[in-house]
């Protein structure tokens, strides 16, 4: 019996020593961002006996339990790249930005990220923040459910970039009392563009306005939209490039990139499609094929570089002339002909001066010329049992059999939390509770030593018999 009691005391020493280590880890990480406290849990070791008249002591064993799912308090900070998950989920991080060495995807709540010398964002543990890349329309590139579609966040590569115009929306009014243009009877497509290029006004347009667009390298160009009245409520228009030599002359004579006809209803609204479908308001693309409006997709081809020192990608622009039967785009009223407003995407961006992160996880770059561009979106990884995650170096976690498989969610959806920028999640350690636990464990450890000394005295007495 003394031997078994001695073994029970030794098991207590081992269990409570492990518990002291757990408490020490909690206390030393009281200021670690995103740290989740760990608790020691004890269970009995029982030696089965077949007799009720005797008892064989077993002892105790310790097991640690990480309270990873517990939410810590959010503390505001002054850094835009300090982020926290408000709710369930984890940031996705990687130990290496190149995606090769140490390529395991890990998960963390430690969101104190800062930019390194190469422009990547990593936290204090050196783990790189991963996100979905966004295209020019703000949509996620690739499969959002595939973790391999994530890339390291880096905004320095955006310095001085340009983005081609893809959408143009125009709101303008054609004066309804404008007389039919005298040249309308002999008008053929291209007459106005030829006049603009040559600088001679053989056909004087009844309406002219300019819209600035951008090519694939961010260089600005001017589109000239000219129109003449050809009949009652009917206008012919042409869209001309400002520099005809920049376009392929085989496809765009005199810089003409679009033409067509605009028809208006008696109430002044635009008639994009007449009631009997006999007439459809059209624009012509680069090949001369009619495209229905609004949303007409216009394509135009740049020269191959022989007439310019720069070779850029061919253009593709969707024009929006308004809603059929409405006056929210082009209209025809008695007021003077004028362009009311226009909306054009694309730009020549300056140097990156900052970054902002929205609640939905959208990462936007701030440029020196005042423009912003959404470039990444942060996923939030959720688990069926986050408390079962395997601990990793640097206050991060890895997938385990107990945690279940992760799911990449957009912030605020699928049970995931939202992203809080300019904030950090504090450690969940309660110092008062840890010190109380430390006292209890120390007393239990001392009591276990008394079991060993008492068992030793009993064995000593037995050896003297």
Percent helix, as a range, is: 10-25%
CATH superfamily of the largest domain: Flagellar hook protein FlgE
Rg over CA atoms: 36 Å
**End-to-end gap:** 16 Å
Oligomer: single chain
The CATH topology of the largest domain is Tick-borne Encephalitis virus Glycoprotein, domain 1
How would you describe the shape? rod-shaped
How large a portion of the residues is in β-strands, by DSSP E?
A: 25-35%
SS content category: alpha+beta
> Tell me about the biggest sheet?
9 strands, antiparallel
Overall pLDDT, averaged? 85
Overall tally of domains: 3
The tally of helices reads 3
Low-pLDDT residue intervals, each spanning 5 or more residues: none
Number-wise, the strands total 32
Quickly give the CATH architecture of the largest domain: Sandwich
CATH class of the largest domain: Mainly Beta
Word description of this protein:
A flexible structure which links the flagellar filament to the drive apparatus in the basal body. It comes from Kordiimonas sediminis. Keywords: Bacterial flagellum, Cell projection, Cilium, Flagellum. Residues 8-36 form the Flagellar basal body rod protein N-terminal domain. The protein is of the alpha+beta class. It has three domains: 2-67 and 428-464, no CATH class; 78-161 and 351-424, no CATH class; 165-347, Flagellar hook protein FlgE (Tick-borne Encephalitis virus Glycoprotein, domain 1, Sandwich), CATH 2.60.98.20. 15% of the residues lie in helices and 34% in strands. Helix 1 (2-28) packs antiparallel against helix 3 (431-464). It is rod-shaped, with a radius of gyration of 36 Å. The mean pLDDT is 85.
């Amino acid at each position: 019996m003394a031997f078994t009691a001695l073994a029970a005391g030794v098991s207590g020493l081992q269990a409570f020593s492990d518990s002291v280590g757990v408490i020490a880890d909690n206390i030393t990480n009281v200021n670690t961002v995103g740290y989740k406290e760990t608790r020691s849990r004890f269970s009995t070791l029982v030696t089965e006996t077949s007799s009720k008249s005797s008892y064989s002591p077993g002892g105790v064993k310790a097991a640690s339990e990480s309270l990873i799912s517990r939410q810590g308090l959010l503390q505001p900070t002054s850094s835009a790249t300090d982020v926290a998950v408000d709710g369930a989920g984890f940031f996705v991080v990687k130990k290496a930005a190149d995606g090769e060495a140490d390529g395991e995807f890990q998960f963390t709540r430690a969101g104190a990220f800062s930019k390194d010398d190469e422009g990547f964002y990593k936290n204090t543990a050196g783990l790189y923040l991963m996100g979905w890349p966004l295209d020019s329309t703000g949509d996620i590139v690739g499969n959002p459910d595939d973790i391999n579609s994530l890339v390291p966040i880096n905004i320095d590569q955006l310095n001085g970039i340009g983005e081609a115009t893809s959408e143009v929306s125009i709101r303008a009014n054609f004066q309804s009392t404008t007389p039919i243009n005298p040249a309308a009877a002999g008008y053929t497509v291209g007459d106005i563009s030829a006049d603009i290029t040559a600088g001679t006004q053989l056909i004087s347009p009844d309406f002219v306005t300019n819209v600035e667009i951008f090519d694939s390298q961010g260089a600005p160009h001017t589109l000239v939209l000219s129109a003449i009245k050809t009949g009652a409520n009917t206008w012919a228009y042409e869209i001309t490039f400002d520099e005809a030599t920049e376009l392929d002359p085989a496809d765009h004579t005199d810089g003409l990139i679009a033409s067509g006809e605009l028809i208006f209803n008696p109430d002044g609204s635009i008639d994009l499609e007449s009631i009997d479908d006999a007439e459809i308001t059209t624009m012509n693309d680069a090949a001369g094929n009619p495209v229905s409006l609004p949303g007409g997709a216009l394509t135009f081809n740049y020269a191959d570089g022989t007439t310019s020192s720069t070779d850029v990608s061919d253009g593709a622009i969707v024009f929006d002339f308004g809603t059929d039967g409405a006056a929210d785009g082009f209209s025809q009223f008695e007021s003077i002909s004028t362009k009311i407003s226009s909306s054009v995407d694309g730009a020549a961006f300056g140097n990156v001066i900052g970054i902002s992160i929205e609640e939905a996880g959208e990462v936007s770059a701030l440029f020196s010329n005042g423009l912003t561009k959404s470039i990444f979106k942060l996923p939030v990884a959720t688990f069926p049992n986050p408390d079962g995650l395997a601990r990793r170096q640097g206050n991060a976690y890895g997938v385990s059999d107990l945690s279940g498989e992760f799911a990449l969610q957009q912030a605020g959806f699928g049970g995931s939390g939202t992203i809080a920028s300019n904030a950090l999640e504090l450690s969940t350690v309660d110092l008062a509770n840890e010190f109380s636990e430390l006292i209890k464990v120390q007393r239990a450890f001392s009591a276990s030593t008394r079991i060993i000394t008492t068992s030793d005295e009993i064995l000593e007495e037995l050896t003297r018999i």
